[in-house]
Structures
1.
Amino acid sequence: MKKPLYICSVILSYWVIFFSSTINAAYAQNTITNDSFWNTVTGKPIYSQGGGIFQFKDPQSGKLHYYWYGVHYKEAEAYRHDPSVTYERNHFEGVTCYTSTDLVNWKFEKHVLTKEAVNYDKRPTWLGRMGVAYVAELEQYALFIQHGKNVLIALADSPLGDFKVHRHIDMTDRIGTPNTGDQTVFTDPDTGKSYLVYSYGQGRNKIYLSEIGVRDGNVDLLDVKEIFRGASREGNCMFKYNGKYYMTASNIYGWDGSFAYYLVADDIYGPYKPINEMQIMPGSEQDYAHVSQTGFFYTIPGSEQETVLFCGDRWAEFAGNGLGYNQWVPLSFEGEIPYFNSLSAWNLDEETGIWSVAKTNNFIKNGSFEADRRYIPSNNKPVQEQLLGWNTEILKGNSISTTDPDSPVLNYFNTREDRKQVVGEKSLYLSDTVPFERVVSQEITASPYVELPDGNYTLSAKIRNTAGFTKLNLFATSGGNSKTADLTLETPEWTRISITNIPIKNGKVKVGIEAQAAAGAYAILDEISLVKE
């Protein structure tokens, strides 16, 4: 006997709902995992760089949703597919829009500014560093994006686009250069007013703030207020916390990571203090803001606490800086001073604003050695004797020097074959032209905001090394107890080694490598991690 059609439909609908719920549940989470390529809730790749998060009403439900806009570059796809290649050029695919209700799980909506809208195929120039503001006077959403040597403004009736070109602004009459340096859009959560934050187009030694509004029927920048003049900066962006305004930026390091700098003010137009003397954000020093640049921020009001989300850009396809394009971490505060919590994995409750360290967090800083831009020691910008986050102690052999040609080189630039086995362009390098003995170590301690809980941990690394070592040990020491792994045997191919059941007590551990070898012997290590079991 055949089942009635409506019963079959009900059964089919049930299974569709069941499987859809199962798929979404598999992806739904509250953990933000850095050093990885991100996916949407349906498992599709996220491509979003140089943009921002804004809260707008959903056109259908009228409820507030988070809208994350960023640029999709063709090379981002290629690098994700094969991270052994660093790409030197970029090709604009469109401005993507992702939506979320919790800032962790994102749904892809569409390309809201398309290649066709900017005539990209006929004019393949740079597009990037963008954001969206709602212009109430026109009931329009305005997208501001760098386009060649101008600022492009595109408008749409909905936060979901489609954005159409409204006008281009040549900034020459306003700041003296046709283009801005890096730029972002900041919306004051208390006033609802939006601003463009940008730097001088040449040299980038000045930073400006302009309110976004309407002039003569056109969306425009209503004013130009210089809020900083000093050392060259890029990655200019702003956030608000506890009623104060923070202007932030990075060093001029191309596509590479940098310290996160900040100034603070009581009024949005300043003065930002200390005047023209940007401060390094504590916590960003050991790994250059988790190998990223200041991209944008989002302040979560939260029912229990206000949390500022640092959203760093990692331009991996142009600089080979490891995996993942987006590195997000929570900030903490000591009074007015922001503290950068460099975490590889952490949990966020958007409703309460409370965050916590995830079980999968790697407590090592600069464990893949991507933070260091050049061969170290370096006498070029930035002048640097030690690898970031690590201390190299020379017990025997040539001394470390930025000027002596006999100085040992502390890092290794991975070949493409290496990069098929390990992450990123760089690794730790142990070698010398004379017999040598050295210790490379990192002290890991609990911070005022991130605990290093007591318990057992696993220390792991990838290694390849020649013969010629009389000692080559990976070690971890905590509470007077040490555990080691002997690596002296020649290992010509990349191999992962681990030390398990490392007892850590009192929120402190020292990890590292001890080496003693003949002249010319070498060991290369990468992907060092320390994770709680």
Note: Residues 5-27 form the longest helix (23 residues).
2.
Amino acid sequence: MQARQPDLLRYVNTLQGTDSDPKLSYGNTYPTIGLPFGQHFFSPQTGKNGDGWKYQYRAQRIRGFQQVHQCSPWMNDYAVFSLMPVSGKLHVQEDERASTFHHQNELCKPNYYRVKFDNGIQTEISPTERGAHMRFSFPKGEASYVVLDGFLKNASITILPKERKIVGYVRNGLFIPENFKNYFVIQFDRDFKGYGTWTEGGKQIQHDKLEITGEQVGAYLDFGKGTQVQAKIASSYISPEQAQWTLDRELGAHKKLEDTKTAAAAVWNNLLGRVLVEGGTEEERATFYSCLFRANLFSRKFYEIDQQGKPYYFSPYDGKIYSGYMYTDNGFWDTFRAQFPLSNILHPTMQGRYMQSLLDAQEQAGWFPTWSNPGMSGVMLGNHAISILADAWMKGIRTFDPEKALAAYLHEVTGRGFWGGSNGREGWESYFIKGFIPYGKIHETTAKTLEYAYDDFCAYQLAKSVGNEYYAQIFERQMFNYKNVWDPKAGFMRGRLEDGSWVPDFDPIEWGGAFTEGNAWQYTWSVFHDLGGLANLMGGQQAFVSKLDSLFTIHSKFKVGTYGHEIHEMTEMVLANMGQYAHGNQPVQHVAYAYNYAGEPWKTQAQVRKIMGKLYNATEKGFPGDEDQGQMSSWYVISALGLYSVCPGTTQYNIGSPIFRKATITLENGKKFVIDAQGNNTEHVYIQSATLNGKPFDRNWIDYQEIAAGGVLTLKMSDRPNKNRGRLEVDRPFSLTKMKP
């Protein structure tokens, strides 16, 4: 008899992180209704059309229920349209049709969203991978309208009364090819009593009109009085025919919304159940599973399934149709750190497809994507596609040609594209010749130098693993370029001018300038591949530990620097009150694990538990900064398991301090890896002793293959640190250079 699947969805709160705005982020999320890595998500909309903050917890009115693809409010959205139920008098303009609501009348789960407006209308939504099932219930005796909004840019809408359908397309978004269209089909279960279209954002209504094409256009349907109506929705970037096929395939067998809701719940519970935690508090389990939910949303599947069951896709890079898999909506500067290393454990098959799609994207665009949304944007910095590729390869995911990856990377780092600062390599000539990027005409130069050095290490790792000495020799020297921006007198990484002199008037608490969304206190640690070498620059192990201690204990003051004003990341650092440690942004998120490299793992254990307990929860204020396509959530999930990948591109995961008494990871191959933390609780954060499959285990790291093979990591936890464990050289995680005493 098969064991009953646990209902872990009860712990997930999709409102986590939604109490945010541009000045202060508790996640900058929206209550996502969708399946894992789904091509389309859905969300209630409180903000105006085009507002990146599409749902804010403090808002009191909902304007519509959108199909969404947004991976960050700073990048906005694309391929958007919405439906909105309206009763009484017909209103189509977004301000006029908006309805008030209260959160006690709202239920927010990944598989099912429900809200009852103050006017009595109830909306329910359940998702599929490429569509959704909606149901609108209207008060008795009131007129019942459903309004379709084609959003801000071009849209084409056709009403088909005999078929009970609306079909058409929308074309909106910043990073889309010229021929991009999102073809949609919406199938209703009731006849239309009336219909019409509207233009100019709703200023002009044409009753009884069946078609409209233009900007800021929409349509409405009249269903009579006091009715309940269901709508099945699917859309495609390939063709109207594919949209209809997808609707039939994903929703055809679902007569009622409950069918879609149940199917979506099974998908999510199956995934959440693959990481089964025991012990901890109810609040900790809610935080864990809410984060695990968000860790499995991006990158989005950008491929569709044809009538033969084969994947194919519209390329967001060149606008052509290809066979195979494509993924998008991800900023690698954020996610190479934790989201991809977590997916390499949970989803190696998907990761294998993803790696090939990266090479396909590079061929179609001429460059690797760095932040796709859905096409090339070049936002942020670094060339972190190589980190993702090298990390997968080193962990045994070998579905792509490494020689092609290396050739593409060399092209990437010896030229500049026209899409933003991370399309190609800004300042690449100076980086190769001088060993650093001078500050002046180019900004954020020290941050770029540091991140380029790490990326070059990843290319070196990939080249060495396949025996390609040509590429290995190119990047072997470059991966030590971090040393060229270290100022031994100041004791920090710093910006340098064209003549090699240091940028004057240095203050390590000053943000911007040579750094990105941070300061020298945070960026000095961005040497993921050689923390031993960094320690030696500081004067050795004791100086390294002392500097780490200071990061967490110094004041949280800052200077706005070249930003000229306080940005939300500064505010979030102050609110965290953990010194200059700014967990609300990515550059510093590995630093709590750095004690492992200096033989003082008990300090890592204490710090990671403090960060998790203090900075995360499952509420609308659940994150200490931007959630960023699953990175912030993945950091929590993997850290809560007692693991963390400080240096993607190697096979190692650092050992931290797990939150739960027991965690069982069911791998794709059916094997189970168990973290059995005996005696674990909020006070017992320290590892006294450990065994792996019954054998003594003193290392501060574990290999990916040891996890993939299944087994049991047993940790005996205590409220007192064991300062004799994990101190030996063999116990320390990978570093290019041995750390001096």
Note: Residues 278 and 626 are 28 Å apart (CA to CA).
3.
Amino acid sequence: MSALDLVTHYWPALAAGVVGAILPPGDGQGADGAHAGDDHHGGHGDDHHGDDHHGDEHGEAHAAAGYTPWQRAGLGLIAALTVLFVQWLWPSGAAAEAAEATGEWSSLLNVLIGLPFVGAAAVLFMPRQLLSLLRGFTLAVLGAGFLASLWLLTVPMTVGWHFQSIKEWIPALGIRWHVAIDGISLWLVLLTTFIAPIAAYASFGSIKNRIKELCFCLLFLQGAMLGAFVALDLFLFFLFWELMLVPMFVMIGIWGGVEKIKAAIKLFVYTMAGSMLMLAGIVYLVWANQKLTGAYTFDYLALSRVVLPRGAQMLCFWAFSIAFFIKVPMWPVHTWLPDAHVQAPTGGSVILAAVMLKIGTYAYLRFSMGLFPGPASSLAANLAGIAILGGVIYGALVAWKQSDVKRLVAYSSVAHLGYVMLGLFGVTPSGIQGAVIQMVNHGVSTGALFLLVGVIYDRRHTREVSEFGGLAKVMPVYATLFLIVTFASVGVPGTNGFIGEFMIIMGTYASERLGTFSGIHTIGAAAGVILAAVYMLSVVQKMFFGPLTNPKNKHLPDVTPREGLALAPLILMIFVIGLFPAIFLDRMKESVLSTYNQFKVVSGQAILFADERNAKLLPEDTFSPAFLKGAPSLGSGEGEAGAGEDEQARRDRGARRGDGALAARAGEAAR
């Protein structure tokens, strides 16, 4: 390709990069803002501490007077990469052929998981006095992880698992290192690698003490979150699930607000209670499979074939699901979330809202629906009702009455994730696609909201809505950004929030699982959209418009270059997803359809196979070969593995294995 062809093809990216790089140097407000912030350091207990306030922080504050050449270059790079991202993923025949020819490196996921863990270990050996080195190294590791994760986009997400890596770990117990992604987990992995550097960059601007420990927590948490999204061995998933809790507990407990210890303990107790239930369910499922096959395994693909007795099946479903509902969080196990968000430092709130909560929604789709499709199908209408009443509507009403803007955003997460769970409970292709894209949307828009709340807290050290009013007069850029993110949060067309909520509502209306209640659920979901507009636009009106009566707000500086650099990628992604949703939906379409079809067939067969006393194995041909690729080779369940099955049950299973009409019967049973 000639130089002229390169310019012709990539001119939009070049133009975006130039526009970002030629931003004016600013009017000096940033320096004033930095000094104003310094006046409030110490004693407020959230993000600001004075222990290690060395000369480099003061130099950084003075440099905030305008966009430095490096900051302008960073904004230009962000703009250019965003345009390249859209061009690269835009559907085209040539792009598809090139992707087909690209091989999969089986160790890529291992690198993505291992890189932050190795970085965290390296941080422990760095002198704590070298603050710039610690910050730069952490950002470099997280940035390298994001760039490496883009490699995942080079492979089309066809049915089945990609970038699969399998190693024997504890053979005696059948525990393996088994990681892989599909079109569903792809975007959640990319969301994690995208958000982490932004959260770290924002944290380094406000947290001034114990930087070494902060860097360790950020890197360690990143590795654990990525591991949870790609683990296909239940022991491995549980390990990463628990490892996530430690750094978040530390981040809230050390750099949190006045009631940080209470919030950290509450987070720990709630999560551990759910984890113990899930562990009990895992152990029982593995034991039942061992009785059937004669071999131990924790592999998700192998355990998907197990049909437990009806009572045990329901108990295990609840054991897994309660753990996931706590993490989401769903009513009534949601009360840890507002406290954790309010007390957490800004970077911790961003990671908690944008990524950690999504592990609960993802895990319900992958494990609760994958391992126990029968109970998930039969309880769908009841769970959808809880998602609407206890999530969407309750969360919105409580958010509306909050006087603390950060607590308002926290309760808005309860409402938004209620939509995600509604899409999963309805079990339609549209609903599941909408739920997955809404997980990404919530991570982007709510992450931006928490950053914006952190901006105003840095200036005033209060989050009380009554303390503000008329801010648009003195902070026009900040007001504009807040309004854009508000529109995304309430689902205005053209922003990222619209497409996800629309698909979930349409999927709810068309859901067979919700039966005669689908119309009522749809009305409830639509009412939640209206309530979201009420509480979000209400706080915008109170904070930014009307008279500027509080004298403390009359000289507040607008968004500084550092804050603008942290917010820019999120603002851009709001419009990229909102205007080009097909880029994201096409990549997950085949995986979602495969998951939906498998759930429909397997849930029906589980009902046919299940009895009151004995566990059984579904035939392998119930599942697609692409799904079982990588599953361990175990017994067929006939000889010793057939313990608990009588002769008639084995004959029935053999007949079903060859029954060509089984899928149709399963569909009828599921309906």
Note: The chain has one domain: 105-609.
